[in-house]
Amino acid sequence: MNALQASGAQFLRAYPSSSFELARLADQQGLTLPLRSVVTGSEPLYPLQREMLEQVFSCKVFDFYGMAERVAYAAQCEHGHYHLNPEYSWVEILDEHDKPTDDFGFVVGTTFHNDVMPLLRYRISDQARWVKGTCTCGRSYPRIELSSGKVEDQLFDREGTAVSASVITFAFKGLANIRKSQVAQLGLGEWEVRVVPETGFTEGDSQALLANIEHHVSDKIKVKVRLVDDLARLPSGKFKWVSQEWPGARRM
Ligand SMILES: [Zn+2]
């Protein structure tokens, strides 16, 4: 935080997980640093992360959506809507039968700017749906709503109902003694919450977390809390907060 301030930084661009980690530590120490905006991308941005970032950096968070294959790019406007950049690629939203859908479907893109390795109608495992009508910001670029997380990391309760990663974040609200966390599904209705604890973490924090999950997320899951020393990032440096590790999930 001191280095950011000394550099005269006005913007912060980072992964949601790493900027949240910085904001959370700053908040613990009562530090704030007013910026003009925080720009996040590459991982799903959860409401709890946005709230903490906006509080510590006293500005709006603008999230963008893109991927290494570069077949779609969308960025949030000041009203929080994701506008696609039509000069970047042609984007379709297709169902599992490759038919256009107005519901959530797979993001399929054709690049306009990659002459060396053009990808044609390349399907990403992200899901999104079209948002109809015009945006209050006045921009006419089409809007999409993203489903949080990758399809392959969707978690389910014991009845096979999909549980939104954004909803899982509610269980962590107000729990101060958790440094890092990760939620994984290991079996039918069996989840494990991996927690890197702060020094003050007690059994009471575990119980509060479990009660929150039952109350705010679902009572149709068996959840265990496992304390760990650290949580690994992917080789790209990204962090997977929600992790589907049950082979049976592929048949859901
Ligand atoms: Zn807009």
Explain what the structure shows.
The protein is an alpha/beta fold and 252 residues long. The chain folds into three domains: 2-62, no CATH class; 83-147, Luciferase, domain 3 (Roll); 152-251, ANL, C-terminal domain (GMP Synthetase, Chain A, domain 3, 2-Layer Sandwich). It is 19% helix and 31% strand. The chain contains five helices and 15 strands. The protein has helices spanning 2-6, 16-28, 47-56, 165-169, 203-217, and strands spanning 11-14, 37-41, 60-65, 74-76, 82-84, 89-94, 105-111, 122-131, 143-146, 155-156, 162-163, 178-187, 190-197, 222-227, 242-244. The strands form three sheets. It has a nine-stranded mixed β-sheet with strand order 1-2-3-4-5-9-8-7-6. Strands 14-13-12-15 form a four-stranded mixed β-sheet, covered by helices on one side. The protein has a two-stranded antiparallel ribbon with strand order 10-11. Helix 2 crosses helix 3. The longest helix is centred in the last third of the chain and has 15 residues, at 203-217. The termini are far apart. The chain binds zinc ion (ZN). Zinc ion binds next to loops. Residues 77, 79, 81, 83, 135, 137, 139 line the site of zinc ion.
What is this entry, summarized?
The chain is of the alpha/beta class and 252 residues long.
Topology:
Blueprint: H1 2-6, E1 11-14, H2 16-28, E2 37-41, H3 47-56, E3 60-65, E4 74-76, E5 82-84, E6 89-94, E7 105-111, E8 122-131, E9 143-146, E10 155-156, E11 162-163, H4 165-169, E12 178-187, E13 190-197, H5 203-217, E14 222-227, E15 242-244
Parallel strand pairs: 1-2, 2-3, 12-15, 13-14
Antiparallel strand pairs: 3-4, 4-5, 5-9, 6-7, 7-8, 8-9, 10-11, 12-13
Bound molecules: zinc ion.
Zinc ion binds next to loops.
